Here is the input.
Amino acid sequence: MSSKRIDVVAPGQLGAADRKIWREIRAASGAPANPFMDPAFTAAVGAVRAQARVAVLREDGSPVGYFPHERGSAGRGRAIGLGVSDSQGAVLGRGIRLDARALLRACDLSSFEFDNLEAGQDLFSAHSTEELASPVVDLGGGFERYAQDLRRRSPGFCKQTLAKERRLSRQVGAVRFVFDDPDPGALRTLMRWKSAQYRRTGRRDRFAQAWIIRLVDLLARGEDLECRGVLSVLYAADRPVAAHFGLRSPTVLSWWFPAYDPAFGKYSPGVLLQLRMLEAAAAEGIGTVDLGSGPARYKESFKTGDLRVYEGAVVRPGPGGALQRLGREPVRAARRFVRDRPRMARAAARTLEGLGRLRER
Here is the structure.
């Protein structure tokens, strides 16, 4: 009879052997090599978030699973990097069977909240309250095949995009694109644009949070091939007009923080950037670009399909679980109510943008 144990440690306490086993378990699962599910992402969050933890599941002393999470007040748990992580869940070897609440009890958690739980996470999926579409671009057949299909599906979109690129080159200056730009100044420019976009649209400014800036800086300097930051920049006359910072593994690029200079908005520089990025990603051997959950017209234009992700929470009986329900469930219910009514959702977006403009005055 095998002996089982769960040890809860800080991400920095995991060694090279743990990272190797973690990745072997992920590879054997057949799940996409999403960089958010890699130990390097958990380690980066652990370097900037003191409450980051990893539960290490052992059988007969050997690791058979990992559960990255963050532990807040009253034992309220959340997915590692919640708010910026686009793929979440546990990493479990085949045949490992667990009860979600028993796992939380072993981790001294009263609840566990997630908003981008990946498909196939049977441990937590029964506790989801909403299923969301996460658009993806399949580049497995190469960029030319993808571009042919895009032209067939959206001939007007492709023609307009290329015409705007030519106009940008004529009216502003030569257009060039850098897929993996090491310039820290360009990264700071992107953060500034993104902060302004959040404020302009009335949304929470992620780059007003110091830990997110530190996390992005850390990942931008990372050299781990399984999970590292990639800054892509579109220039016109050597001036940055659009940029994106994302995470990549050898086969998956996760779309994360895109933004552009509003002064060049008439050229749709964000769309031009994305088209160039897809071409460069395919040349790098990336087979999937995960655009992340959340509605956006450009995602619908570029996507070839959707993955499913889930939002919800596992809650144990007790005061901490009650706090989780009181604090989060009304917000989720209100958001679902609006999201399921497109006309109301559009009105809410206009209201947020109006509030954002007032704040900028």
